[in-house]
Every structure is written in C-alpha cells, then in structure tokens.
Amino acid sequence: MLEPVGLDEVAERAYGVMLREEQLTVGHLAGLLDLAPARARQALDGLVTAGLAQCHPGRPARYEPVDPRTGLTGLIRARQRELERVAASVETYAADYHERKLRADPRLLVEVIEGPNEITRRVGSLVNSAEDEILAFDAPPYVSPGDTTSPSERAALARGVSVRAAYATEVLALPERARVLREMIALGEQARVLPRVPTKLIVVDRREAILPLTGSDAGQRTTAAYVRRSGLSDALVELFEAHWAVATPVFAAADAAEPVDPEISPEDRALLQLLNAGMKDEAIARQLDLSQRTFRRRIAHLLNRLGATSRFQAGTQAMRRGWL
After folding, report:
1. Taking residues 242-267, what's their average pLDDT?
2. Beta-carbon neighbour count of residue 23 at 10 Å?
3. Domain range for residue 206?
4. Least buried of 65, 209, 212, 215, by fewest C-beta within 10 Å?
5. Contacting residues for 157 by C-beta, under 8 A, at least 6 apart
C-alpha cells in the first residue's frame, strides 16, 4: 500500500509493527519479522529518512513512529511535489522529441486531410483530446450545413475546457448558427466577432491545429491541414490572439458582469454589441426579434443617450462608458 510513497514491502511491514509497539529495537524487529539484523536496521533507518519514525540513540537504539497524520501526509506531499516537477518537464522533453521527429521527416509537421467527412471526424477527435483550451476561428462555408454544432465542444465545455471563438460577422446573419452560438455561450464559450476572420481554424492546447487548405466549387471545404506542435502551430496561436484582441464580444452570457451604468439594459447592450460587430440592420433586427420600426426607434434612442451623431461614434462612446 505504501509503495507509491517510496516504501518497499519490508519497510511497510516494519512500519506496521512499529505502530503497534511502544518502542522498537533492531533486534526486536529482526525477531518479529524473521529478518537479518542488517536488513531490519536498513528498514528502520529508511523509515526515519522518510519522516515516519524517530531514532533515540542508546545501546541499543530505539525507534518510535511519528504520528501518521503528520508523517504520511508530509511524505505524500513531498511525492506530489516531485511528480509536479516531473510533469512540468514533460513539455520540454516532448518538444525535444517532436523536434527530432520533424528533423527526421518534415512531412510529420503537416498532415493533409481529404474529404468533408474525414475533416469532421478529425476535428471532433482533436476537440475530444483538449485538456485546457480550445481556440477557434469560424466562418461560412461549413463542411456539413446540417450539423450546426459539435457535440465534442459541448463535452469539452462540460469538463471545464476553456473555449474562445472568434466568428465572422456573417455567421450572426444565419439564424440557426446564431441560435447555436447563443447556446454555446450559455454553456461557457467566450465568443467575439470580426468583420472577417483570416481562415477557419481550431487549435487545441496551443499544440495542434486544423485549418482548411482549399474549398470546392460548392463552397464546402474538402481539404484541410493537421498541424502538429511546431513553430507553425505557435504562429497560428499568435494569429488567433492578435485577432481576438480587437474582436467585439457578442451575446454576453447570462451570468456575465452587469454593465457599469445601471441604466443600460441587457437588450440595449446586445443591440450595441451587434452594431459594433458590423452586422446589417436587417440581420440585427432578426436576431433581436424586432420590427424595423422598433429597431430604428431603439437606435435613435441609443444615439441620443450617447450624444452621438453616427453609429461609429455611438460605439466609441459606449466603449468609453463600459457598455461594451
């Protein structure tokens, strides 16, 4: 039972005897466990070194246990710290390993994936492997128009994986995609929008990525690249972070912090977010389930409150007030 903390079978047996005896000598232990005196002394000295026993000098020397709640807990924590140091070195060793593999065969850096079905399968597999973080760019066209979301992303969010996704504004104009986006945000995804994204992309744990290479005449992606950990995957992470920094948050989650100004309603804040994302009026009205007349009235009201003469100026003023 105590082997994981560095005690062999003899030391564990000696420890069990020690816990039941008031004090223990080498000779006494040797007799109880049928051990050679030298082996008995080795076991007792090992328990002292492990912090599980104390030795009282004398002729003969006597050994007594430390309270297991102190001794064993300290030993467990020491082992945990050692394992954490080993875990911290895994990525360094892995980087050396992958660098050697890439030098031997550079083709291992990028794998070409052919066909929509295989792309979908590999994306799902990659997302399922996520332990800490998923980064994504998303934009039409889609591999599978009928598949509006990835069950693997939902599972990743459920197990605590951080998901950040930057969407092209045109995604919000697609009712079904926008509906699913709201659902994902409610589950914990952080979403922002941009007028356009440079490419569709998914990066898992900052080490592996999938991005499309070409599109068919019908607009669906038919060839993708699977990029393994390398300088190229690092560059893709930097590309994402640069765009994320200037993207606009959208569809704030229900538990998000309230705006600084208590006068701004969640509905008006959502309207400002969509305006700032560059969506067309018709698409915004559809997203918010507003008539064109109500939409125009809400816009005029917001411009008046912000003291703005244009939508651009309204966005700037809203950001200054902390409404966005």
Report:
1. 68
2. 13
3. 109-249
4. 215
5. 163, 184, 187, 188, 189
